[in-house]
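Hi V.,

Quick status before I head out on leave. The structure for the redesign project is tokenized and pasted below; the design run finished overnight.
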């Protein structure tokens, strides 16, 4: 071998020996791994993390070390989208007056405008969270008031929905207004 070094470059010797095919096979393997990673990434709606991707690659017959896979993921820019965890919207640890539960799960009502229930929920959008507050008449199960806002302000949520319900149906004396006893429903502003 030493006597041929003078006549040939190292790359030419490697080509003659056939070792370049090893490098070509590795290049093809890297391309296949990157294609599979990208495919797994978009099929999982950008949710799968490293361990699941590695398991899927191994399942399809492509063996890869975790650190190698992480390097390819970083090179390709495949960042997972984080899912938003459940957020509790009700704050029941306030110091406002909380009235007793008069309704006591008796959701069957004989007359309209005798019992209304209300609740707030949040809706996740691309711009952030929106808060939906509804007021429902238990007699006919229709939403008689609602409010959609970008904050949990009492004026924009509970009071706005309650005002809409009052204009839609005139409440009679003895109306039961049932809620989750959150701060929007127990604050002084709502009592007005």
């Amino acid at each position: 071998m030493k006597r041929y070094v003078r006549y040939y470059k190292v790359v030419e010797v490697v080509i003659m020996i056939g070792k370049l095919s090893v490098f070509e096979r590795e290049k093809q393997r890297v391309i296949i791994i990157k294609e599979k990673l990208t495919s797994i990434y978009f099929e999982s709606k950008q949710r799968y993390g490293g361990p699941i991707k590695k398991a899927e690659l191994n399942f399809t017959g492509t063996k890869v070390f975790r650190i190698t896979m992480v390097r390819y993921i970083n090179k390709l820019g495949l960042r997972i989208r984080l899912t938003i965890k459940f957020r509790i919207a009700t704050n029941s640890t306030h110091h406002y007056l909380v009235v007793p539960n008069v309704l006591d799960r008796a959701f069957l009502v004989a007359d309209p405008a005798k019992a209304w229930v209300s609740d707030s929920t949040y809706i996740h959008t691309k711009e952030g969270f929106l808060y939906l507050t509804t007021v429902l008449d238990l007699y006919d199960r229709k939403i008689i008031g609602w409010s959609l806002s970008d904050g949990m302000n009492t004026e924009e949520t509970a009071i706005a929905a309650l005002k809409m319900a009052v204009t839609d149906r005139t409440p009679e004396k003895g109306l039961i207004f049932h809620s989750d006893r959150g701060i929007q429903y127990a604050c002084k502003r709502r009592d007005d």
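Above is the designed sequence. Residues 115-191 form a domain with the Double Stranded RNA Binding Domain fold (CATH 3.30.160).

G. will cover questions while I'm gone.

Best,
W.
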